[in-house]
Amino acid sequence: MISKTFANQESAAQRVATGLMKIGLAVKSRNWSEAGSRGLTPTQAQILSFLKGRLKASASLGEIAEALAITAPTASDSVSSLVNKGFVTKHRSAADGRSVMLGLSDAGRRMARQVSDWTDFLVSAVDVLDPNEQQAFLKGLIKIIRTLQMRGEIPLSRMCITCRYFRPNEHEDRSTPHHCDFVDMAFGDGNMRFECADHEVADDDMQFAAWSRFLEMSAGQQINPENQMSNKGENP
Q1: Where are the domains of the chain?
Q2: Which residues are bridge partners to 204 per DSSP?
Q3: Burial tier of 219 (Cβ tally within 10 Å: 0-12, 13-18, 19+)
Q4: Which of 14, 174, 191, 199 could be stapled to 187 by a disulfide with Cβ–Cβ 3.0 to 4.6 Å?
Q5: Do 74 and 33 touch, CB atoms closer than 8 A?
Q6: For residues 179 and 141, is the Cβ–Cβ distance under 8 A?
Q7: Rounded distance, CA 207 to CA 231, Å?
Q8: Burial bucket for residue 43 (CB in 10 Å: 0-12, 13-18, 19+)
């Protein structure tokens, strides 16, 4: 007979959510600790990391606010502080002289490398998983993050699933089913990225098609995209 404790327990999805929240608390605590030890706030550290990962090495204030899901005033205050510390520089956009672009100084690049290393504690924890578990976990995270993005809960990131170069499930080899047109190479779920410097945002139709194709459960069996959320404001 099943005890009441097990009969009344939360669903697996609820327990996964609880686990993710605990990881989030650990990340938040470490972020405050690491940034504070370098005289930065977590937001300032995130801005440095964001600029470090930019292919063009610069961004507007609006792009920073959108990418980090913070308000324009918060972004402005943090950037001003980083400028005063000598980590961030300002220059006029070559495309539009009225726009101010933000980039890293030499000191800012050095600091960005330092603050980007603080996640090593999390990498060592993930290394406890075997390769198959890591790949399955990564694919699950991609689905969760993409769903949250489409609901407007978190901002878009430079991940494969939203990139115009991404071709999911193009190849029959299940170990390397996807294709990246940018490097013209097949790759597997374990090589998918959340942040890629070569990322270029696909248009809505391309993103919707890629997402639907990515959700294929097996050859010839595909989740109906009409039951999934598109980038056009539909609910999942």
Answers
A1: 13-120, 129-227
A2: none
A3: exposed
A4: 191
A5: no
A6: no
A7: 8
A8: buried
Long-range pairs of 13-19 with CB within 8 A, sequence gap ≥ 24: none
Angle at CA 141, nearest 5°, toward 203 and 132?
120
Q: For the segment 4-33, what is each residue's pLDDT rounded down to a tens digit?
A: 555 557 888 999 999 999 998 998 888 888
Give the number of other Cβ atoms within 10 Å of residue 86's Cβ. 12
Q: For residue range 33-90, what is the model confidence (pLDDT) as tens digits? A: 888 889 999 999 999 988 988 766 788 999 899 888 899 999 999 999 999 999 999 9
Secondary structure of residue 163 in the 3-state scheme: strand
Structure tokens at 176: 């390397």
Residues 103-117 have pLDDT tens digits of 999 999 999 988 887
* Position 124, amino acid: S
Count of positions (residues) in the chain: 236
Q: CATH: 1.10.10.10, 3.40.228.10, 3.40.390.10, 1.10.490.10. Which one for 13-120?
A: 1.10.10.10
Angle between helix 42-52 and 72-84 (nearest 10): 80
Specify the residue for token string 């990131």.
157
CA distance 189 to 192: 5
pTM attached to this predicted model = 0.72
Crossing angle of helices 12-37 and 42-52, in 10° steps, is 90
The dihedral through the CA atoms of 135, 137, 138, 144 has a sign that is positive
Per-residue burial over 120-148, b = 16 or more CB atoms within 10 Å of its CB, e = otherwise = eeeeeeeeeeeeeeebeebeeebeebbee
